[in-house]
């Protein structure tokens, strides 16, 4: 008696597992992009708040934050960069918040609103 042919078994198994593997790979890529964006926004907020805390320059602080976040997007509007105060008096805290909406590559989920926040004591 002849054994049944298994010629197509590998192709069927591959067809069943391919969507799962693609979701895993694309999910990893999307998570990596989101994590990188979050770190960049947080560092940008820290750079901006540092300028505000030392130089007491609100416009300079916003510009520094936007420049530091340029690797994420060069089109972040100034209205998405906010300061808790426009005058940084010695001994008080100042907070800079930068907002960005991350669109996804796959379009399966998202877009994701993200926020970077930096807090520093005025006066250096």
TrEMBL record:
<protein>
    <submittedName>
        <fullName>Pilus assembly protein</fullName>
    </submittedName>
</protein>
<keyword id="KW-0472">Membrane</keyword>
<dbReference type="InterPro" id="IPR012495">
    <property type="entry name" value="TadE-like_dom"/>
</dbReference>
<feature type="transmembrane region" description="Helical">
    <location>
        <begin position="12"/>
        <end position="32"/>
    </location>
</feature>
<dbReference type="Pfam" id="PF07811">
    <property type="entry name" value="TadE"/>
</dbReference>
<keyword id="KW-1133">Transmembrane helix</keyword>
<keyword id="KW-0812">Transmembrane</keyword>
<feature type="domain" description="TadE-like">
    <location>
        <begin position="8"/>
        <end position="50"/>
    </location>
</feature>
């Amino acid at each position: 008696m002849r054994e049944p042919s298994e010629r197509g078994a590998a192709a069927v198994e591959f067809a069943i597992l391919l969507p799962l593997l693609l979701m895993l790979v694309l999910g990893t890529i999307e998570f990596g992009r989101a994590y990188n964006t979050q770190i960049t926004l947080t560092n940008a907020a820290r750079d901006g708040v540092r300028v505000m805390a030392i130089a007491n320059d609100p416009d300079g602080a916003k510009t520094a934050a936007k420049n530091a976040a340029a690797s994420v997007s060069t089109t972040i509007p100034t209205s998405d960069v906010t300061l808790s105060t426009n005058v940084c008096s010695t001994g008080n805290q100042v907070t800079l918040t930068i907002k960005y909406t991350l669109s996804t590559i796959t379009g399966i989920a998202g877009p994701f609103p993200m926020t970077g926040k930096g807090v520093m004591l005025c006066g250096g």
